[in-house]
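Closing statement on the zinc ion sub-project.
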Amino acid sequence: MKKIKISPSILSADFSQLGNEIRKLEEGGADMIHVDVMDGHFVPNLTIGPPVIKALKKHSSVLFDVHLMISPVHDYIEAYSDAGADIITIHPEATNNLKSSILKIKELKKKVGVSLNPGTQIDTIIDFLEQIDLVLIMSVNPGFGGQKFMPEVLTKVKELKKIQKEKGLNFDIEIDGGINFDNAKTVIEAGANILVSGTTIFKSNNGDVKKNIELLKSK
Ligand code: DX5
Ligand code: ZN
């Protein structure tokens, strides 16, 4: 079994203190930093773009796990790569040609992530699994932090894990949305090995991110 990794989402951080927040996460044992990029079009919310990512990257030596919720995504991939993204995750619905967007990320020598919304089936990406480094399973509809975990996506995680074994592949299975101390064990047992978490990490236990990262990892 793969080692469980935690990718804290800075969506729940103090945006006036992002550099400090990232240092705190790194000191607290974060394996990577999850950056939620939203465009107010693919999802009904707007966050940050390449200049902010570039500035933050200077504050950190951990991987930047950049989740692009923007459409059309293809022509922006290079800007996020240049800004310092290590993993670039895209949604199939956000590109006209998933194959060429995957190739673009690979050409830039970044890790390829593809994300499945709660309503998007594994079939959408089945032909591309050999090229993918990470599948991000959304356990909420993307757009906002602090939403309630949708337990019905566990079936998809289990199914993906099964397909992975059958095909002898090694991509990471990351889960994003509503992860907390109560459901962490269940999602790990279903097959996820990277847990994204914003609210639980930044708001539980008076914002003791180290403690919260440790607690999620110990599940
Ligand atoms: C939702 C984002 C998530 C989310 C995680 O669109 O992709 O990363 O903010 O935050 P919590 O843990 O608060 O659900
Ligand atoms: Zn995300």
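The radius of gyration is 16 Å. With this model delivered, the sub-project is considered complete and its resources will be redirected to Aim 3.
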